[in-house]
Design brief:
Layout lengths: L12 H8 L7 E7 L6 E7 L2 H20 L2 H17 L1 H12 L3 H26 L2 E3 L7 E9 L2 E5 L7 H12 L3 E5 L5 H13 L7 E3 L4 H11 L2 E5 L2 H13 L3 E5 L4 E5 L5 H13 L9 E7 H16 L19 H16 L3 E4 L15 E4 L6 H4 L6 E7 L2 H8 L7 E5 L3 H9 L5 E4 L4 H4 L13 E2 L4 H6 L2 E9 L12 H16 L4
Parallel strand pairs: 5-6, 5-8, 6-7, 8-9, 10-11, 10-15, 11-14, 13-14, 15-16
Antiparallel strand pairs: 1-2, 3-4, 4-18, 9-17, 12-13
Length: about 525
């Protein structure tokens, strides 16, 4: 029996082909994707041309009308069934994600958990969030004003390779329950994980035409995704996001984007050193650092810098690297040769300019073609690529500070603003520091999981780290068009009944003064 990517214990090649059959067929030459662990083929996937994608939009648009007419409560029940299926069948998708991305199993499980949580959250709350809402009218009693929500239509979604299940579920689930159809382009490398979630959604009751998965090169399919969609969701690099935003703006199409980050951690002088070192390992090296919210800069108070560095290096050096499809491994592989080249370049450039290597610092071809050791550096300064540019790998630089205001200034010295972390025994002090950091999410005594798992709260970036938010009510409502309906009765809003305009406006002015004093 042939397993995908020649990884023992992985799903079979036949199962991979079954998942691929759920993608829209296309007229471009297919491509073969390979497993980061081994370099062996995973499967061959179709590639679409511009016309193929436009046809997928036509199918989705035709299906969307019936889906939008489905009562919200019925759409929400699909999500609740999806929640159960994701948890019941997690073993297969854990294998898929490991084979496609090279990540460890515990990191893959994070994706299972957050996808299930998202389905449950919107499954329970969508009906209330999307229900018509009474709003204060122009004149109490005489004006009845209601806000209603309509789906955007067909949402275009471009998903990255690094978190293929979570970053599909976090966006697809609210878009669909809002009554939209979806045309999603996952990355070729990790298409199977997205196809797996779509397969489960269909099994849970989603009409299959409502979610179209299109695969292809950006140069071939990007134009159709921008021009045919009614809203664009994108997760990826800042440079690509800028280009997509400019094209969407030409059509006045709304969009939401989570982009890059150079995320800081501030360790206050009262922090528990061992607890913080343990948390820093997770914050920096989960998914081999290939995580938008991963920590790449640590600012530690000089009073505890030596003790923290010693504990952090010891814990990092003890991490177990490997490719097992079980929980025996701490850190997996990188996903692509491009990432390996970028990480090697950043580290080599820093070392050449005087950075000091404290742990790691080299590839591990003895383990597999794309393994790279978790790496800690200090004496990193401006002029080094690693100092300011996103590395997106298992590399972190340690910096010292003597004053908390100085640490906050250093943390904010970046064009990015996605995620940050603060460590302290004093929660109130941590919260005060957090409010002064320019980042969309800030975790106290955690690296990223506390905010990442808070599905009821918005998540996204400031500055070059993105536009818009996912999660929470906003993560659902952004996929809708609000409409205001106001019914006027009894008293008209212009002079009537023969009343002179001067007398009418004087009376209305007196009424407005009175309304100011009435709680609304």
């Amino acid at each position: 029996m042939t397993t995908i990517g020649s990884v023992p214990g992985a799903p079979t090649a036949d199962r991979a082909a079954q998942l691929v059959a759920g993608a829209v067929p296309g007229g471009a030459d297919p491509v073969t994707v390979t497993a980061p662990f081994t370099g062996a083929p995973i499967t061959t996937i179709p590639q679409l041309l511009d016309a193929d994608v436009r046809q997928a939009f036509k199918v989705a648009r035709d299906a969307q009308r019936g889906w939008a007419d489905t009562p919200v409560a019925d759409r929400a029940r699909v999500l609740l069934r999806l929640h159960d299926l994701v948890l019941d069948r997690q073993g297969e998708v854990l294998d898929l994600m490991q084979v496609e991305t090279g990540k460890s199993r515990v990191d893959a499980y994070d994706e299972v958990a957050v996808t299930a949580m998202t389905a449950a959250y919107y499954g329970r709350r969508a009906a209330r969030l999307l229900a018509p809402r009474r709003r204060a009218g122009t004149l109490p009693v005489f004006t009845r004003t209601t806000e209603v929500r309509h789906p955007k239509g067909v949402v275009s979604m471009i998903s990255p390779w690094n978190y293929p299940l979570a970053l599909t579920g976090l966006d697809a689930i609210p878009a669909l329950v809002a009554g939209n159809a979806l045309v999603q382009k996952p990355d070729n490398q990790t298409a199977l994980s997205a196809l797996w979630l779509r397969e489960l959604a269909v099994a849970a009751g989603l009409p299959e035409e409502v979610w179209q998965i299109v695969l292809g090169r950006g140069s071939d399919v990007g134009g159709a995704l921008i021009e045919e969609g009614d809203y664009l969701g994108f997760t990826g690099s800042t440079s690509t996001g800028r280009g997509l935003a400019a094209r969407a703006a030409e059509r006045l199409t709304g969009f939401s984007m989570e982009l890059g980050g150079k995320n800081p951690m501030i360790i206050l002088p009262d922090a528990d050193v061992d607890h913080t070192a343990k948390g820093a390992v997770t914050a920096c090296f989960s998914s081999a650092g290939q995580l938008c919210v991963s920590i790449e800069r640590i600012y530690v108070h000089e009073d505890i810098r030596e003790a923290f560095t010693r504990a952090f290096v010891a814990r990092t050096s003890a991490l177990r690297l490997g490719s097992a499809l079980d929980y025996s491994v701490d850190v997996g592989s990188l996903t692509s040769t491009a990432q390996l080249a970028t990480i090697s370049s950043h580290v080599d450039d820093a070392l050449a300019q005087g950075a000091r290597l404290l742990a790691g610092g080299k590839p591990r071809p003895d383990l597999g073609p794309l393994f790279y050791e978790p790496t800690i550096l200090d004496n990193v300064h401006e002029g080094m690529t690693l100092f300011a540019e996103e590395t997106f790998g298992p590399v972190v630089a340690i910096h010292g500070y003597t004053d908390v205001s100085q640490a906050i200034t250093l943390a904010n010295h970046t064009r990015y603003g996605l995620n940050a972390s603060v460590w302290t025994r004093d929660r109130r002090a941590g919260e005060e520091v957090a409010t002064r950091i320019h980042a969309g999410t800030v975790n106290i005594n955690d690296g990223f999981g506390a905010t990442f798992g808070s599905i009821d709260a918005p998540m996204g970036g400031m500055h070059d780290s993105g536009v818009g938010r996912r999660n929470g009510p906003e993560g659902l409502l952004k996929y809708t068009e609000p409409q205001t309906i106001a019914a006027q009765r009894g008293l008209p809003l212009r002079p009537a009944f023969g009343i002179p305009a001067r007398a009418w406006t004087a009376g209305l002015t007196a009424g407005l003064r009175a309304l100011k004093r009435i709680p609304r």
